[in-house]
Amino acid sequence: MQISAELMEQAALAQAAPEASATETTGRATDAVVWSGAIRCAGLAGAIAAALTLLSFALPTVAVASFFWAISAPIIIVGIYNARYRQTRITTGFAARLGLLSGLAMLLAVLGLDTIHLCLLRYAFHAAAAIDGQLASFFAQEQTLILAQTGAAAAAPVLRMFTVPEFRAGILLGLSGFIVGIYLVFTTVAGAFAGFLRSRAR
Predict the structure, then answer these.
(1) From CA 82, how far away is CA 80, in angstroms rounded?
(2) Model pTM greater than 0.70?
(3) Spans of all domains in the chain
């Protein structure tokens, strides 16, 4: 009876040891990233940006809040992920990728809604005159600047290109791509900065 009791005690200790080690491992910060959670956090950034964009269509002053959210979102999202998944060690590299994901989610939401809004204004409500006026003013300023810098003879070929709709569309697409690229770089750097601060705090 004494031998069987000792065996049962040893078996209980052997069963408790893995559980204790698993508890210690779970409580300790690791480099394992919960990417499903990271994607949900980035989706939250996009959802908030979409909501603010929709509100700005009715209340233009909300655009100020959208601007501040676009700037601060990468840092806030890193903080939200850290609060939800404390077992993940926040590193500069991971926070940079999370900031990039947040930026992509916000751009997809905002650009998608803006595209739908512009299409509705032009083709459904036929109320795009103000936007057309702004674009015409922009191209007129560019032509005046080119003419002043190069002279009439040298600027003539370039000014003729401004009359081609495809050329104007290419300029707008190029400017849009440039702005998108700068913003994605910003969100990546902002996320990396937030991760650097949190890694030092640990």
Answers:
(1) 5
(2) yes
(3) 33-201
